[in-house]
Fold this sequence. Notes:
Blueprint: H1 4-20, H2 26-79, H3 91-108, H4 112-123, H5 126-134, H6 139-152, H7 158-161, H8 170-183, H9 185-192, H10 204-214, H11 216-229, H12 235-238, H13 246-257, H14 261-264, H15 268-281, H16 287-292, H17 299-310, H18 318-324, H19 330-341, H20 348-357, H21 361-374
Amino acid sequence: xxxxxxxxxxxxxxxxxxxxxxxxxxxxxxxxxxxxxxxxxxxxxxxxxxxxxxxxxxxxxxxxxxxxxxxxxxxxxxxxxxxxxxxxxxxxxxxxxxxxxxxxxxxxxxxxxxxxxxxxxxxxxxxxxxxxxxxxxxxxxxxxxxxxxxxxxxxxxxxxxxxxxxxxxxxxxxxxxxxxxxxxxxxxxxxxxxxxxxxxxxxxxxxxxxxxxxxxxxxxxxxxxxxxxxxxxxxxxxxxxxxxxxxxxxxxxxxxxxxxxxxxxxxxxxxxxxxxxxxxxxxxxxxxxxxxxxxxxxxxxxxxxxxxxxxxxxxxxxxxxxxxxxxxxxxxxxxxxxxxxxxxxxxxxxxxxxxxxxxxxxxxxxxxxxxxxxxx
Length: 376
């Protein structure tokens, strides 16, 4: 009687013979080969997943060790200069980890700590490595490099960042603009403002944040220079006028608002910017222009005219504001009511008389609300 071991060997040999001998039927042969190929592919994918998981785990352990080593060094250096500069990070991964740590701490500190961290960054030669990464192809690493140069704020790297203003990636181009503004605001806005109309992929809120970063002094000159060039002001440029110096924008605003109302309708953004500028000036000579635009067709323009008049209104402007209490726009009625109760020299008896004389229910409600808020 054959032993069990011999039986097992025989079964294995038979199975191997079946697997290695393709069936005669072409369909079955194709099915067998497909199953074998699928099994091999599955094994390869499993092996790849295991290898990648192990590599990622090792990289994560290295990153945690690097962070634990460098975080206290950076924190100590931000408080006081050390006796000697530490060794710079080695390898591309460590460079990126260091930049992330440095940026995180750089955003949190102020004053002398910022200067110490900047000195450390340049002292260990990271600025040169940042410029090298800036010339690479990786979008994330280029953005990281721009963020580091933005916090350094050294115009020595101006020529390295300037070409990125024309980058087809809008995020890259705007980050480059922010970096240039951090280096030299006035010089940067001379380059950025002419691109506002060309780069339609730059969102207006991002441009406003850029103007806020640069400051009114840097924005006013190049912005007004572009507005004077053409007859019709570009809407995207006019939207940035609120971030310029009002006293420098006022002459353009007066010229723009002097035109006929029926010719200017349709440019609500421009009109609102001009009215807002004149409202900030508090100049009594602008009163006729503000009163004129209270009759505009656009409710947004009427609202801006009421708010501009509110900043310099006197008792003689009460009839014009009372008329706006019957406006079709809820916002205009509320703004007019707030302006009426804040008029200088107006007593509670005057306000009560206006309230009694109002026949429009919505205007009376707006004035009642304004009176209640005034008494708080």
